[in-house]
Amino acid sequence: MGATKSGASEPSVNEDEASPLAAGDDEKREPAGEEAKDASAVPIVFRVLIGAAGLAMLVGFFFPWVTRQLEQQGETAVLSGLALLQQESIAGTPPLALVVVPLLGTALAAVAFTGFRYTAHAAIGVAIVLFGYAAYVLFQLFTQFTGVGLWVTTGAAFLALVLGAGTLGWMRRVAKKVEGAKGAKETASGSPSS
Q1: Helical spans, DSSP H, in the chain
Q2: Taking each helix axis from N to C terminus, what angle separates 119-145 and 100-114, rounded to the nearest 10 degrees?
Q3: Is 159 helix (H, G, I), strand (E, B) or coil?
Q4: So what's the pLDDT on residue 191?
Q5: What is the pTM (predicted TM-score) of this model?
């Protein structure tokens, strides 16, 4: 910041003098950085709970999942997730797909217990994958064992739910408009008489 080509010199400005807050900026920035770091960290309580949920997925894989009626002996068999791996097909999906359950549970527990920044995102992702698969299996079973009458009844019930909720929303909107019009009318008629 000394002399330029034309020979004129620019005034030398000390950076500390240029900004009255320059000395205090460093002090103010550090806590903000710490707060940002703390804000992105997953609280220990949630880490433990999410890790426990992951471990429960792993352990639950070895507990009973379904009860099947055996055709030959007339007895029932209780099958765990591990036993279902030995089946030929589960609602049209290969049984090897069940390996995902304990793997995702273990991964979720590891992510949570190590304090990974995106633990919450991982938990949501694992839940969506497992709920999606469960919904698929339930839908397959539902369609496999039901007839047209149940479909018509279920569809009509869903339509009634949607139409009822829509009607309530419409009625509330109309009631607010009527109240607004009454209030405006009363204000208009009440103003001249005052």
Answers
A1: 15-18, 22-40, 44-60, 81-84, 100-114, 119-145, 148-193
A2: 160
A3: helix
A4: 56
A5: 0.56
